[in-house]
Amino acid sequence: MHIRRAVSADAEKLSSLLNEIIRAGGTTALETPLSAAEFADWFIDGEFPLTCHVAEHDQSLVGFQSLSLYGDPPKGFADIATFARMNPRAAGVGTALFPATRAAAEEFGLEFINATIRADNVSGLGYYAKMGFETYDRLVQVPLRDGTPVDRIKKRYRVEAGHHKKPDA
Predict the structure, then answer these.
(1) Where are the domains of the chain?
(2) Does the keyword Transferase apply (predicted)?
(3) What distance separates the 2 farthest-apart alpha carbons in the chain?
């Protein structure tokens, strides 16, 4: 799997990947599909994104991971978002992306990476736990667009420059 920084030209394919996940429902807090231009603004080159990496496998984009300052997080924090293609599913996308995101967080001098995950997103909760994120808060009964209340679990990863080695290092 090849990891690289996302560029504006990726927005159309990545918005398509994300919109498939949004339409499937049940894993992301995002409920409205994004146009390519909205995707680029939210994740690649708008006011709030710090970095966005893509994973490519067999000449195809199979996922992405971003760090963003959207929503005015506390100083030293940025929010992470991780998405992997649903069909066909590619194993290990998030695990492959995280070292690049962690390195970017170090470069930006972040203290923590924050992940806010729907409580019903079992695979997302498992992924972030596996990456070393620890639960520190819970937002109770946050309503979805249709009014359904779903808790959000807040997990954070402490960024410590130099304390993490890439598996192949």
Answers:
(1) 2-115
(2) yes
(3) 47
CA Rg, the chain, in Å?
Answer: 15
Structure tokens at 147: 């009014």
Whole-structure pTM value: 0.88
State the architecture of 2-115 in CATH terms.
Answer: 3-Layer(aba) Sandwich (3.40)
* Residue 99 φ/ψ region, left for φ over 0, alpha for ψ in the -120 to 50 degree band, beta for the rest: alpha
Strand order of the β-sheet with 112-118 is: 2-5, 49-57, 60-68, 77-84, 112-118, 149-158, 134-143
In the Cβ-directed half-sphere of 80, how many Cα atoms lie within 13 Å? 32
134-168 core/surface letters (b: 16 or more CB in 10 A; e: else): eeeeeeeeeeeeeeeebebbbbbbebeeeeeeeee
